[in-house]
């Protein structure tokens, strides 16, 4: 079945550091790929998405490129802020009727001032 | 615009008591609906999903059940709670389509004591 693997962290960075959170997936067909962010005590918010190979999703300075050849969707940001501290989830949606979403385990990011 | 409501936000229940969590979606028709559980410090586990009224698919055998009595209403229930049912419960919805994302409610923090 479909699955998502991502570095679990926690990841601790200083403000203005470069961020990479790795995500790889296994899926049949051509899934859409997503990054969600969860702030403490809240639900998940969509951060960015990509729906086909070589698409780049971007939002709030975060970027991720859909790499079909390496089955990856790594999240990057050039300069993190304290407000970026949260848990980040990589996810995919398969092409089955139920439109199931499969999530990675989440990566906790802490950014120190 | 579409919104999702999930309540209550916090719940403390004794072992053996019943449970009912409710989720409603506004601004869309015939959504796919999902219940996820997030245990402390862990990723998301899909519990149930529904593609229509009265249509429920269970992903994990457990002490919980779900119902969809109306198009935009999704209820998570238990007849007798266990300590292991504690966690953060998230309702989500999506529309049918290959490149659409899931939209999440704010979650319910359930503590079984």
Please characterize this protein's 3D structure.
The complex is a heterodimer of chains A (113) and B (113). Chain A has no helices and 12 strands. By secondary structure, chain A is mainly beta. In chain A, the strands form 3 sheets. In chain A, strands 2, 5, 6, 10, 11 and 12 form a 6-stranded mixed β-sheet that branches. A 4-stranded antiparallel β-sheet of chain A has the order 3-9-8-7, with no helix packed on it. Chain B is mostly beta strands and 113 residues long. Chain B has no helices and 11 strands. In chain B, a hairpin with a 5-residue loop joins strand 4 (32-38) and strand 5. Chain B is globular and about 40 Å long. Chain B starts with a strand and ends with a strand. Classes of the chains: A mainly beta (113), B mainly beta (113). The interface between A and B is medium-sized, with 26 and 27 residues.
How would you sum up this structure in a few lines?
The complex is a heterodimer of chains A (113) and B (113). Chain A has 113 residues and is mainly β.
SSE order and pairing:
The complex is a heterodimer of chains A (about 110) and B (about 110).
Chain A: E1 3-6, E2 11-14, E3 19-21, E4 23-26, E5 32-38, E6 44-50, E7 56-59, E8 62-65, E9 75-77, E10 86-93, E11 101-103, E12 107-112
Chain B: E1 3-7, E2 10-13, E3 19-26, E4 32-38, E5 44-52, E6 55-58, E7 65-70, E8 73-78, E9 87-94, E10 103-104, E11 108-112
Parallel strand pairs in B: 2-11
Antiparallel strand pairs in B: 1-3, 3-8, 4-5, 4-9, 5-6, 7-8, 9-10, 9-11
Please give the share of residues in helix of chain A: under 10%
> How would you characterize the largest beta sheet of chain A?
6 strands, mixed
Amount of beta strand of chain A: over 45%
Distance between the termini of chain A: 41 Å
